[in-house]
Structures are given as structure tokens and as C-alpha cells.
Amino acid sequence: MSDLAIELFGITKRFGPKVAVSGVSFSVPRGAVYGLIGPNGAGKTTTFSMMCGYLYPSEGTLTVMDVDPSTPGALKGRVGALPQDAVLPPGWEVGALLTYWAKLSGLATPENEAREALEQVGLMDAWKVQTQALSHGMAKRTAMAQALMGRPPLVLLDEPTAGLDPRIAAQVRQVIKDMKGRQTVVVSSHNLQELEELCDAAAILDKGTLAQAGSMSELTGQGAEFRVQIASGTVIPPELTTLPDVTDARMEGESILVVRFGGQAKPEVVISRVVAHLLQSGVLILGISRGRRLEDRVLQLL
Amino acid sequence: MCKSDRVTHTLDGLKETLVIWGAEFRRAVRSGRAVVLLGLYSMFSALVLLVIGKLTSDLRTTMNERLAGAGADAESTARMMEETRNGVLGFLTSNDSAMMEALAQVPIEVLLVFKVTLFFLPAYVALMGFDQISGEVAPRSMRYLTVRARRSSVLLGKFLTQAALLVGLVLVIDLAIFIYARIANPDFGFAALSLNLLKFWLAAIVFSLAYVALTTLCSSVFRTPGVSLVFNFILLFVFWLMDTVGRASGETGSLRFLRYLSPSNYAGDLLHPKITEFGVSGAAYAAFATLFLLGAYGALRARDL
Fold first, then answer.
1. Residue A101 touches chain B, beta carbons under 8 Å
2. Measured by CB atoms within 10 angstroms of the end CB, which terminus of chain A is less buried, N or C?
3. Tally of structural domains, chain B
């Protein structure tokens, strides 16, 4: 068994003349919560759909939980998936539909699994509700519940919180956090703050190509820079660059000092050293944040 | 893949098919659409039955009156009526003496209604199942299924659902026709009724399964249900045209072989008493059904969902 839950190598997907994804390669380690990031049309959903076996890659190799997802029946029991725009089939009661799908997944106690999954997403009241009568948020959570049934080792979630009210979105995020370490989770989302909060690592896609992939710490530069919010006093950046391990220091606007340091240095040592220097120089500090926000990194890349 | 893996794989596929079949069948039976379509087809069959019943009854009365007017005795009248019946039966069975003999006990109305409803059955099948696959592909609900089941299982499960619905529907219609025939013709005994009901039901099932498979094929090829339906009707028309042109070409025309490519060409022998003739007809329908299902699987297997 490989340490990787998903491995993409040179994946390309064409729809006629249009290239939706071009030569994308990255891997998702087992047990991680992994983000797929990118603007509209970046190829997130196409990549996601290839991982689920909905779309066949035009080129490249793709392995999901050690199997080729395009092999018939290969993903059964290995993957739970929340597709983005898939409509729940009409004419079913939610409970009956989930029980049917649980049975189809080969789960030993289908009805119990369905009830547990609905409880996880806070939707037990909807057991007898017809699928066509569900609100958008309820349909989304029902779809999320079907992905969770049977605790599959890999859960793929495409825009899990899109269109949900903040309370329910927080509940869904908590469900994802609870899976951390026990299951591998891939989350595709526009909500970068959410991904930064949830993910251990991510791949940033743009116009069908991979812009960057790595751990969240690598993407946000947590191990290489920090920001100091200045309340008052005068900062002289060249003085800071003379400190050990500091490679660059500059003001970003009037009150934000950005300090970069060598990759080998311990962040806590460098931060303490810089803060001590600033205080000695009579500078008053309002706050410190490591790295930069994921949103800033993504905006810089795209 | 070793032999035991293949067996496990096949068994797993069968289990999936059964689960899909059972669940989809329950949903279809509960759905308003199945009830409405069943009602419509029953009404259509009842209408055909009433029209044909009235026509044959009027024909009998007119003939009786004319024969009585011409001074024919009861024996001559009965003989004339029998000759007329044999003429119609000969037309319906292409003058096949074995078939005529086998169907001698069946009231002529039953045969006529059976032929008419059989002609329209493919259209009903198309209306009933045109969205069985495309209706799941277009809104992408198919994605919930394919992540937990093989595409072949989904296809077979959906096909069997439609087939099971049709088996029930055909039984209801055939039963109604035979009950009418029994009421209208007291000579039509219970034993003959039961035996012929079974034969007619079996013939209709064999006939319609190929068309269910055709509908499954059309539904798999296209993403939009409406387009599936239109394409299904186009194919039905093409098959009818091929059969008609092939027959019209006679035994020597260059287009005479066209009819062998149309399923309806083989409908005539489905009521044949000889097992060989029935077998050939049944095998032809089985071959068409297999071909259509393989085509459907090929289309669904190759496509992005």
C-alpha cells in the first residue's frame, strides 16, 4: 500500500479543442486534508471529477487509493465523493435514498449508516422528506452525508460549503476537521480562508495548469517570513537585515513590516530577535503574524 | 486478474445490479409517471379493443343479414362466417397453416388487438424509459451511482427495471383483452384462454425486451433526455421503414434483405406453434436485445459523466 492516497502525473483533460487541465502533477498523502485551489475555470472540478472516475483523463496517469479510478468498480468502498453540481434524483425520500446508496456501497448495516451520516450533517429531521422538496442547503448536506457513509478512507468534497449559511458551513467544516488523521480528505473550494483553516496541504491551479503545490506552511511561507504590525515609532529596515538569519526586511504600507529569513532558521528565534531589536529602538508593536495569508499567496501566483 | 478475483468481481456486479433493479423498480412503481403511462396505454388498448370489437360485431351482423336475405341456410351461413374468419386469420398469419390451426380457437378480435397494440408497444416503451440513463446523466445524479457501482450494473439495473415494468404492463393488457374475448365469445373456453394468454404474454415479452434494450441504447448515447426520445422515435421509424421496404421489394428485389435488419420482421413467428419457428424469432429478438445492450454499455462506458 502506497503512502499516497492520490497521485497525478502529467494529467491532461481535453473537451474537444478546449484543454481544461494540462499536464498537472501532484500527490496527496494519506491522512491529510488537501485543498484544491483556483479561480473559476482553473480546472479544479475537472481534476476532482477525474479523481472520482467521472471523467477520463486524455493523457497522464492517475492513481486513487492504489487503483485506476477509470477501472469499473475500482473505487467502491474506497472513496466517498460530493460532486459539485450533481442533483439528487427526484422521487426519493432522503432516508430511503441514502439507505439504497449505502446498500449499493456494500455496507453491512445500510440504514444505520444512512442515519449516522445524516446525523453527522445535522439533517436527521429530513429522513422522510422528498429529495425534490429539499432546500439548497439541505440538498447539499444530504449529498455530503452520502459521501460520509461507511467512513471511506478517502473523501472527496467539491465546494462542500458553497451556498450554505454560516452556521451550517461551520458545522460542515467541523465534520472535515473530525476526519483529519483518520481519513484522507480532498476539498475543492473558492473559500481560501476556509481552506487555510482546514488543509494540511494544497494544490493551486490556474487556467488548467498547476501553479504551485505544497504544504500549507510552504504555500503561506510560514517558515520563511512574518509580518509585524507597527503601532508607533520609526522602523529602519536595513538595520534589521544585519540581524542573523534575516534576509530581507521592508515596509508594506505605513504600518506593516515584512521580514524574511533563511529556511534553516527557527522562526521563533528570528521573530524574538527582531521584536527585541524593534522594542529597543522604541518601536511599539500591535501584532505579529507568521507567513502571509493564503489569499495573498494565491493572488500573487494567479 | 485471477479466476477467483473474476468470480468475486462478477458476483459483486450482480449484487449491484440486483440492488439497483430493486430500488429503481420500487421508485418507478410508486411514481406518478408509471401509473399515468399505464393508464394511458390501458385506455389506448381499451379503445382499440372497443373499435375492433364493434367492427367485427357489425361485420358479423351485416353478413348474417345478407346471407339471410340471399336465402342461405344456417349451415351455409356458418361456413361463410368460418371462411371469412379464416381469410382474416390467413392475412394475419401470412397463411401459415400451422399457425392458423394453433390460433383457431382464439377470437379474431384478440388477434387484431394484439397486433395493433404490439405495433404501438415500442413507442410506449420509448415514452416509458427514454430518460432511464440520460435522465441521470444530464443532472449528473449518475455520479452518485458510479462512485459506488459499475456502469454496467447501473445500465443492467435500469434495463431490468424497465423490463419488469413492461412485463407487468403487458400482462395487464393481455389479461384485459382475453377477459373481453371470453365475455364476447362464450365458446372461448377457460383452458384455451389460459394457454393462449400465456403464449401471447410470452410473445409480447420477447418482442418488447428488444425495444426496451433499444430505448436503453438511445438513453445511453445522448446526454439530454429529450434528444434520446427523439432519436428513439427516429430509430423506430427507420426500423419500420426497413421492414416495409424490404417486404415491398418482394422475394427478388435488391432491398429485400433490409427487413432482416429490422426487429419487427421477426414478430410474425412469435405465436408460432412450432418450437423452431418460435425459437428463431425469439433468438432474433434476443440477438437484437444483446446488440442494443452492448451498444448502450459501450456508449456509457466510454463517456464522461
1. yes
2. N
3. 1
Give one word for A189, left, alpha or beta, with left for phi > 0 and alpha for psi -120 to 50: beta
Strand order in the sheet with A154-158: A79-82, A154-158, A184-189, A33-37, A201-206, A209-215
Distance CA A114, CA A100 (A): 9
pLDDT tens-digit profile of A162-180? Answer: 888 888 888 889 999 989 8
Q: Which chain A residue is nearest to residue B305, measuring alpha carbons? A: A54
Contact A76 B148 (CB under 8 A): yes
Indicate the pTM of the whole model. 0.84
Rg (CA), chain A: 23
Question: Would you call B143 and A83 a contact, using CB atoms and an 8 Å cutoff?
Answer: yes
Q: ipTM > 0.90?
A: no
The full DSSP string for A103-146 is: HHTT-SSHHHHHHHHHHHTT-GGGTTSBGGG--HHHHHHHHHHH
Which residues of chain A form CATH 3.30.70.100? 221-301
Measured distance CA(A26)–CA(A211) in Å, rounded: 11
Q: Is the CB of B15 inside 8 Å of chain A's CB atoms?
A: yes
Q: How far apart are CA B9 and CA A84, in angstroms?
A: 30
Does B294 or A73 have the greater pLDDT score?
B294
* C-alpha distance from residue B259 to each of A61, B13, B33, B239, B241 (Å): 47, 36, 34, 8, 9
Residue A13 DSSP symbol: E
Fold of A221-301: Alpha-Beta Plaits (3.30.70)
The answer to whether A85 faces chain B, any CB pair under 8 Å, is yes
How is residue B285 written as a grid cell?
Answer: 429478438
Once rounded to an integer, what is the mean pLDDT over residues B17-44?
A: 87
From A85-89, A113-117, A214-218, A234-238, the region with the lowest mean pLDDT:
A214-218
Q: Which CATH superfamily is domain A4-219 in?
A: P-loop containing nucleotide triphosphate hydrolases (3.40.50.300)
- Pick A72's closest partner by Cβ from B23, B139, B152: B152
Could you list the residue range(s) of the whole structural domain that residue B19 is in? 3-302
Give the three cell numbers for residue A91.
422521487
pLDDT of residue A217: 79
B212 burial (CB, 10 Å; 0-12 / 13-18 / 19+) is buried
Query: What would the grid cell of residue A204 be?
Result: 493551486
In the chain, the amino acid numbered B40 is: L
Q: Do A104 and B13 touch (CB under 8 A)?
A: no
